[in-house]
Every structure is written in C-alpha cells, then in structure tokens.
Design goal:
Number of helices: 8
Order of helices and strands: HHHHHHHH
Number of strands: 0
Largest sheet: none
Strand content: under 5%
Structural class: mainly alpha
Radius of gyration: 15 Å
Distance between the termini: 14 Å
Shape: elongated
Helix content: over 70%
Length: about 130
Amino acid sequence: SLSKSCSKVDIRACFHAFGGDFEELYGRIPNENLIRKLLLRFPEDPSWQDIGQALEEDRREAAFRSAHNLKGLCLNLSFTQLYRSSSALTEALRPGSDADDQHIRQLYEVLTRDYRNILTTIEAFKE
C-alpha cells in the first residue's frame, strides 16, 4: 500500500506512487536530503490554490499564469504526472486558446486529482 511504502522513508517509492521520476531528478540533484526537503516543501507552493481561485473568479489569464508556474515547478521537481496535467491546463488557458469552460473544468479536475495524490503521498511520507 501507498502509506506503507512511504513510511519506510523510501523517497523513490513516493515518487513512483504519484507518477514522479526520482531518477531523473536525482540525475540533476544527486542529494537525497535536498530532494526530500524540496518534496516536503512542495505543499507550500500556492499555485494550485491560485488556479482554483482564478477560475472561480473567471480570471483566465491569472489562472494561466498560476498553471504555468505549477508546470515549471513540476518540471523542475520531475513530478511527471502533475507536469502533464498542469501542462494540458496551461495550454487550454493560454491566451488565444479556444478551449471552452467545460474543457478547462475537466482539465482542472484531472490536475486536482494529480495534485491531491502528491499531497496524500507526501503526508504519508512524513509519518
């Protein structure tokens, strides 16, 4: 189970659980303690909340900027699954995109599922 694999403090298992690529990140940052710090600090990033708030207030450009920030963070952290969903939402929100509100809502739901999966995994990892 997820929490068992994480409570053994196996950071690789955690990355695997939420669709991240530990080996890719370790190739760039060969320091497991630093990677652990970055992982534990991830929930402090406000991008996901900012996207939700901007979409609620129908501020697509603000939602685009926050989605773009999240996408960049995921790329840097090798959070592959969340990178894919944040990238899809970023492109749908990009100025000039013809994506309708329903499509954007669906992409945001996928993003939210991937995001919550990471938060749940990190919580289990901390225990």
